[in-house]
Amino acid sequence: MFDVDAIRAQFPILGREVNGKPLVYLDNGASAQKPRVVIDAMTRMYESEYANVHRGLHYLSNVATDHYEGVRGKIARFLNAGSEDDIILNSGTTEGINMVSYGWAAPRMEAGDEIVLSIMEHHANIVPWHFLRERQGVVLKWVDTAADGSLDPQAVIDAIGPKTKLVAVTQMSNVLGTLVDVKAICAGAHAKGVPVLVDGSQAAVHLPVDVQDIGCDFYAITGHKLYGPSGSGAIFVHPDRMREMRPFLGGGDMIREVGRDAVTYNDAPMKFEAGTPGIVQTVGLGVALDWMMDVGMDNIAAHEAGLRDYAQDRLHGLNWLQVQGNAPGKGAIFSFTLDGPAHAHDISTVLDKKGVAVRAGAHCAMPLMDHLGLTATCRASFGVYNTTAEVDALVDALELCHELFA
């Protein structure tokens, strides 16, 4: 049985106060807090189990390597990948998508080739493709959302033309909370012979993910949103795409032999993991995923759906609050502005005085902001440890904002 109080007790930071008020942490879309089990595992690694991984042969190196390499299998189970060899470990989604841009897309795209994107994409799933636009003349083809913030999968499929070489799309918008039918997009794109990259940064923390069922070619996740540490993450790469990729970074571990005139690369996925990795961060991510799977992704999704529904009712009852995006089945993410002169930064500052942490700005989604006709919003994003009482605290703080700025 899901017990939110028991969950909250596992997160030390949730017991603190901010500005004399109990912390109400609603900035999970940017980065989630960490449970005690993750903090303790990382501390233990540094205190008694740390060494560099691979090739060390001494006791501590073997222990660290076992912990580190064990995470690959945990991620494979978390995403239901066909094999742990389909998982490339990295520092997060940004590195993963850049790896695909440099290692897979750049060698096989030329001027005039197209990449289809939704207008909702995070900059991490935009800027690497702009690199190809600037350097190789690749064309970025955009698909807009509907008025309610939903994204029609058929509109994405219809945007695919004879020059399209890749579709890159989020599974859940970090601004609107819109949940995208990436399975339908993958099926439609593959029918036209086009691979699909899915940005799973937001979705993977909120609902069960099955990359085999989705049918995607690439699926990127980032650890700091998954109740794990920053500097950790991974990307699932379908074996067919893995064979087509060239190395993104060169250095230790990704090679077998290096000579004056030649280099022999390691097997995948090691071929794409150069240099000393974020050892402790990756171990922390593995513990975080174990923790999430123990809680149960279905349980997490059900709890957050209840929070979403309650927050929708409360926020939509404020007739001076403009909530952006109301797609059916969206995640528990709410971006909003207030009627009147208050900027998002002003609103965030007032909420902070009440102990309520939200994010203000463009949320690394400037094309979406332009599409919405806005420069910035406030965003309240919920996680596994949030409660309906915290929704009420948010609403109370917003009512204070309305009084101050009306």
From TrEMBL:
Residues 24-394 form the Aminotransferase class V domain. One of its GO terms (molecular function) is pyridoxal phosphate binding. This is Cysteine desulfurase. GO terms for biological process: cysteine metabolic process. PANTHER family: CYSTEINE DESULFURASE, CYSTEINE DESULFURASE 1, CHLOROPLASTIC. Catalyzes the removal of elemental sulfur and selenium atoms from L-cysteine, L-cystine, L-selenocysteine, and L-selenocystine to produce L-alanine. The lineage of its organism: Bacteria, Pseudomonadati, Pseudomonadota, Alphaproteobacteria, Rhodobacterales. The keyword Transferase applies. It catalyses: (sulfur carrier)-H + L-cysteine = (sulfur carrier)-SH + L-alanine. PROSITE patterns: AA_TRANSFER_CLASS_5. Belongs to the class-V pyridoxal-phosphate-dependent aminotransferase family. Csd subfamily. Its cofactor is pyridoxal 5'-phosphate.
